[in-house]
Structure formats: C-alpha cells, structure tokens
Amino acid sequence: MKKYVFVLQGVIFLLLTACSGLKYSFVGVDIPPDAKTVSVKPFQNNASLVNLKLSNQITTALKDKFQSQTKLNIIDLRGDLQFEGEITNYSVLATAVGVDKAAVNRLTITVRVSFVNKLDETKNYEQNFSRYADYDSSKTLAQVEDELVSQICEALIDDIFSKAVGNW
C-alpha cells in the first residue's frame, strides 16, 4: 500500500511541475501569465436618456469582477489589460400590448467597449454589448429601475469579461 501512495505522490508532483508554466483557473479565465494589471476608464454616458448612477455602476462592477475573479491589480491607466467604453443606449419600450395599454415594458442598456490586451493583441476588441429586462407596465420605471439596472449590469459585465478573458 505504501508503494502505491509513493507512486501517486510522484505522479502528482510530476503533473504539477509539468504544468507550472500554465495559467489555470476554475472559472475559465485565459489571462497571459505576464499580465499583472488591469485598468478601467470611467464609462461615459452618451445615451439620450441618462441614468446618473449608471456610468459609475458599470465602471465599478467591471473593476469588481476583475478583482474577484483574477489576481490582477486594478490601476487607473495603462494596465496590461485596458478597458474603456461608453453607454450608448438607455431606453424603455413597450414590448407586449394589453387591453388599452402596454402590458410589459423593456429597459434596454447598450454599451460600447474597447478592450486592449497589451500582451496579446489578437485578443483586442471593440464591440457593442446590449442587455435588457422586462417589467410589468403597472409599475413605473422609477419603482423597478434600481433592480433592473443591477440585473442588466451584471449580465453586461459577464459578457464583457467573458469576451476579454473567457476561455470557453
């Protein structure tokens, strides 16, 4: 029995040694091993309908995502990974019509993101990301806005993060 334990320990040691140059993560993150920093410029709000908290909410959520999911340091400018962007759309439209009025409204948020990976330029992108959430028209936007914006921002941040460093 001791022989098998010794062999098993040796195999584990060899596997760990052989894989020491790889960057591995259980969350499916693909970040160059030399990357140490990420910078996120504040997202500008250029939508025709403006939510005053949204710019800060998206910027902070993206930083928080990198802080919780990676070992990269967050810096203000010129990170190894760099994000900047703008909110291009914040709109409410009726999506389902009931008797005499809209039964469901949809809040849509669109952001344009520019991502630069200084260590692997093939990963650079500029892309629009859009997400929405529906709500009952018996409620006003003011009644549901904070909750919906939080849901939409979480989905947008997941999309932006996955596009930049996801390994799927």
Structural overview:
The protein is an alpha/beta fold and 168 residues long. It is built from three helices and six strands. The protein has helices at residues 2-18, 54-69, 141-165, and strands spanning 37-40, 44-45, 73-75, 81-97, 102-117, 125-136. Strands 1, 2, 3, 4, 5 and 6 form a six-stranded mixed β-sheet that branches. The protein starts with a helix and ends with a helix.
Work out the number of β strands: 6
Low-confidence blocks of residues:
4-8, 10-26
* Number of helical stretches of at least 4 residues: 3
Q: How far apart lie the N and C ends?
A: 40 Å
Helical proportion, percent range: 25-40%
Major sheet attributes = 6 strands, mixed
Radius of gyration: 22 Å
Estimated share of beta-strand residues: 25-35%
Topology pattern, helix = H, strand = E? HEEHEEEEH
Determine the mean pLDDT: 85
Give the class from helix and strand content and strand pairing: alpha/beta
**What is the overall shape?**
elongated
